[in-house]
Structures are given as structure tokens and as C-alpha cells.
Design goal:
Elements: H1 2-15, H2 18-23, E1 27-36, E2 39-44, E3 49-53, E4 59-62, E5 74-75, E6 86-91, E7 102-108, H3 110-127, E8 128-137, E9 142-147, E10 154-159, E11 165-168, E12 180-181, E13 192-199, E14 205-214, E15 216-227, E16 232-237, E17 243-247, E18 253-256, H4 259-269, E19 294-295, E20 300-301, H5 340-345, E21 360-366, E22 371-379, H6 388-396
Length: 411
């Protein structure tokens, strides 16, 4: 989402006051990190910081997120600028020697970004669908998804057209901001996908306005070693029998199932009935839980992010999505009622320091063979590993948005 705002500001830079730009090509875009007196400090996305004096003669305008010209911009005062706002700064070529002065500033207010992201998240939640890609017909533009777990598992038909915005998550990234345009034939069976548009009544068909997809991996196994200093785990994958190094970043969602909830979910996933060990975890709405879309290509999930607010968040998704990305997939109820994803999304959050050698974990990560980055990690899963096939379905619908989407959450 931030990337989209940056592109909009750069587009404006190419349009406004062309003669002045020819004389003064120096300009930069970034986030305001400090406002002091008449001085503005802006840090670009490349990590460079610039201090610039803003005289009273400088033109300062405010535009809405996503706007690419100044036709709807409004004039504001220097005092209206704040830390966190995005700004395009054009320097004055006629400033006194040895000084750096702004000639023009075009700003996107942080509050406007947050409001737009919230609207985007709500739209993804209301008009979004998601799941694992079952098949792709590039000639007709039709994608088939599988979504949900247990009794609510269903197939969703996604209809795309030339007007549909198709995006793909970047390698080793779950940021919707980093997603780039990609053709429909870049989507493969097993990928995680989220789409928003006009749905039919039961959500089994959608005319897509936007689609975001990616290849992720599911891993289940036991921790062989961990290093809290470098924030890494080594896990022996039960499926491949190989050791995989897991990098835990600040964006990773980590939760641990209470023993009784893990046993209850295992019963649900195995299709058994009864409420042994489930007291308090049933349909009362007080169950802890998760949510995340996943793919298993081989394995995985994603969701959230403003963008789509994704998939986290984002479509993502990937939560993680990111701000404004699509919320997570969510959506499955095991036999007898109760939503496993919602239960998971309410499980207690943990840190890497809460884990130890020998713990069983299930996680969704970036795609990779021996070295991956965690998107979501679930501990306390020993009972779930007794029903591997059903647990895999649960993980594949685990939202990177951590419960903030339609049935979850943005990831």
C-alpha cells in the first residue's frame, strides 16, 4: 500500500510544474521523520535522510492516497505536516548557495492512509474470497479455489477479465506492498490466492476486480535447535525428514495452543464427536484461535495486508499482510460447529524465547527448501500432528491476518 502511495507521488512529480522540474531535478519521496521550526526531515524508502528548510513561499499541498495528479489537491500549512506523513519534496534551484530549501511539497497524511487502509480491509472482508488454487484456465480467465475446512469446505470459482488487477507476492515476501503485477499464467495449482469483487449469495463465485497470489510452504515438525539472538529455529520437517532453518522476523505471527484446545481441535479435525476436554472452547465465542490462507505448493498460507489488505495483511496477506491488504482466508467449521480458525486466532501470542528444543510446531513460511522465513507459527500442536491430513487443511486456511478477516482477518 505504501508502495502504491509512493508511485502516486512519483507520478505527480512527473506532472507538476514541468518548467521548474527542468531547472531543479532534485526531488525525493519518503516519510517525514521530524518537524522542527521550519525544518523538515524526510527519510526515503532507500534509507537516506534529508533535512530541508521550508520557507513561507513554498507550495504545500495535500492529496488523497492513490491520487496521481494535483487536480484534487488542497493547500495546507507547514504546521499541518506531521511525523509519519508521506511527502514528495522538490528543492528550490534558486535557493541561496549552501542551503537546501523546498520549493514544493506534496503530502499524503498518515491519517488519510490509515483511513483508506481501514476501508480497504473492510472491503476485502465484505467482498473477498480466498483459498488454495485448485486449477487455472488462463484462456477463459477462470480460477478454481478450495476454501474452508471440515463441514464448510467449498469450491469457489473466480472469474477474471482484462480489467482485473492481478498481483503476485514477491519471492521471500508476504508484504502486499511488495506484490507486483503478474499474468494469470503465473498462478499455479496449490498457490494461495485471495480475490475481491462481486460475489454470489453463497460466496462460491466471484467476478474479480483484484487478485493477489503467492507460493508459500507449510512445515510441521519438532524444533531441533533455536537461537534467540539471531531469531532462528531449526525444525525437522515431518514430511521431508529434512532440517529447515526458520527465520523469525518482527512481522511473524506466533501463537501457542492451550493443551485442552489442542486436544479439542484434534478431535474436530479427526471428525470425532463429543466434548471431552473441550469445556469452554466450544461455540460460546470465547475460544482462542488463528486464521490464515495457505498454499502448499508445496504447502502454505497467506493473507492480509491492506494490501490486499495481507491476504494481511494481506491480496493480500498476507496480514500479513500489510496495511490495506486483504484480510485472511479464515472460514472453516469442524464437525459439530465451532470455527477452528477463529479458535486459533485467539490463542495466546508468544515470542521465540517461549519455545524450546523438542517443541512441536506448525508454520506457514515463505517458499524454500532449507531456509525460509516464518509468516505464522503455531506451537502446542502435538495432538494436531496425530491427524496430519486434517491439520494440513486447517493450516492451509490459517489466515496471515490473524483473525481479522472475513472469517479471520491482513494477512
Amino acid at each position: 500500500m505504501i508502495a502504491a502511495f509512493t508511485m502516486a507521488l512519483l507520478a505527480i512529480a512527473a506532472l507538476v510544474t514541468p518548467m521548474a522540474w527542468a531547472q531543479a531535478p532534485v526531488r525525493f519521496v519518503g516519510a517525514i521523520t521530524a518537524v522542527s521550526g521550519t525544518t523538515l526531515t524526510v527519510k526515503t524508502d532507500a534509507g537516506q535522510s534529508y533535512q530541508v528548510d521550508v520557507p513561507t513561499s513554498a507550495s504545500i499541498k495535500r492529496i488523497a492516497p492513490g491520487q496521481k495528479d494535483l487536480s484534487t489537491a488542497t493547500a495546507i500549512q507547514f504546521s499541518d505536516l506531521a511525523v509519519g506523513d508521506r511527502a514528495l519534496v522538490k528543492l528550490d534551484p534558486d535557493a541561496p548557495a549552501g542551503t537546501t530549501q523546498a520549493l514544493q511539497i506534496v503530502a499524503v497524511k498518515q491519517s488519510d492512509v490509515a483511513q483508506k487502509q481501514q476501508k480497504d480491509r473492510e472491503d476485502w472482508q465484505k467482498r473477498g474470497v480466498g483459498g488454495l488454487v485448485k486449477s487455472v484456465d488462463a484462456s477463459s480467465g477462470v480460477l478454481m479455489l478450495t476454501s474452508g475446512v471440515g463441514a464448510t469446505a467449498k469450491t469457489v470459482t473466480v472469474h477474471t477479465s482484462k480489467a482485473t488487477v492481478l498481483k503476485r507476492y514477491a519471492a521471500a515476501s508476504v508484504s502486499y506492498d511488495a506484490a507486483t503485477p503478474a499474468p494469470i499464467d503465473a498462478i499455479h495449482a496449490g498457490d494461495q490466492l485471495r480475490s475481491r469483487g462481486a460475489k454470489n449469495a453463497d460466496g462460491t463465485s466471484i467476478d474479480a476486480e483484484e487478485v493477489v497470489s503467492g507460493t508459500f510452504r507449510n512445515i510441521a515438525g519438532t524444533i531441533s535447535s533455536l537461537d534467540t539472538t539471531s531469531s532462528t529455529l531449526v525444525v525437522k520437517d515431518l514430511a521431508t525428514k529434512k532440517q529447515v532453518t526458520i527465520h523469525i522476523t518482527a512481522d511473524a505471527q506466533m501463537r501457542k495452543l492451550p493443551d485442552r484446545l489442542a486436544a479439542f481441535l484434534a478431535m474436530r479435525l479427526k471428525g470425532t464427536s463429543g466434548n471431552a476436554g473441550a469445556g469452554g472452547w466450544g461455540e460460546s465465542g470465547h475460544t482462542p484461535g488463528i486464521a490464515a490462507p495457505g498454499t502448499q505448493r508445496n504447502g502454505a498460507s497467506l493473507a492480509n495486508a491492506g494490501g490486499p489488505p495481507g491476504m494481511g495483511s494481506g491480496p493480500p496477506g498476507v496480514s500479513t499482510g500489510g496495511p490495506g491488504g486483504p484480510p485472511g482466508m479464515g472460514g472453516g467449521m469442524g464437525p459439530g460447529g465451532g470455527d477452528p480458525q477463529q479458535m486459533l486466532s485467539r490463542a495466546p501470542a508468544i515470542q521465540i524465547a517461549d519455545l524450546k528444543k523438542g517443541d512441536a510446531v506448525m508454520l506457514v513460511s515463505t517458499d524454500g527448501t532449507t531456509d525460509v522465513t516464518a509468516i505464522t507459527l503455531l506451537a502446542g500442536v502435538e495432538p494436531l500432528l496425530e491427524a496430519p491430513a486434517a491439520s494440513q487443511n486447517l493450516l492451509n486456511n490459517w489466515s496471515m491476518g490473524s483473525g481479522s478477516g472475513e472469517a479471520a482477518a491482513a494477512q
